[in-house]
Design a protein that fits this description.
268 residues, alpha+beta, Immunoglobulin-like, 7 helices, 24% strand, Beta_sandwich_EMC7, transmembrane helix, EMC7
Amino acid sequence: MQLFTFLSLVGGALAAASTTVTFRLPATHQLPNPFGLPPSTHATLTAAGLRLSAPLTTSNTFVFHNVSTGSYLVDIHCPTHAFPPLRLDVSPSSTSGTSSGTPTEGLKVQAWETYRGNDWDNKGEVLPVLEGGVIEVTKVLGQKNYFSERSTFSVFSILKNPMILLGLVSMAIFLGMPYLVNNMDPEMRAEWEERQKSNPMNSLMGGGASGQPGAANPMANFDMAAFLAGSSSKKDNNGNGNGDSRPEDNGGNGGNGGKGGKESRKKR
């Protein structure tokens, strides 16, 4: 009799030191139909030397029985969707507890979002705990993509390139301009030709000014290096030097010729 009483007391103490925690997946914008999750979806409750697992029920919940006091890491494993990790704390209930915890069978249950790779005390957003230790997981990170779509070839994707569009427009102008000129009014065509002749770019690119076929191109002997250095070209300097020396040499030779003629006349 005494042994039976002792065992009942021990069982009651153990029952009072554990509780049941339920995680529920409601319908959200990221997960509009939780009933479509694969049946292999399950949640794990991990602590030092302890690992509990709960499958997904028909009511979209994960039920963990006999959860004792401690701090746990909650992971929801799903082949199609990714869920954030959670932190679950189960502690003895007290009157000084915070409003985020709900006493359940003598224990207080609290839950937060947590971050992998950070300090365990770095808690995220607080998750509300409903009556009976029910915690709703409303945040879904997104769907998992295991395959990438094969890229397809499309002519429209090439035409969307700005460089291709610019080349097509330039080609259309280049090919269509002769037809436009041939279909112009004779008076308008003559006026257009006169404007083309008076264009200063034609004199630079065509080899001479308008109306002067034999005129030299002023850009033919342009020395870019000398222009950037701030000095005139060597060719121009040599030409100016030779031009200045020739008259003096000719004059000197002419003077010498005159003196020689006078001396020969005197001798005669």
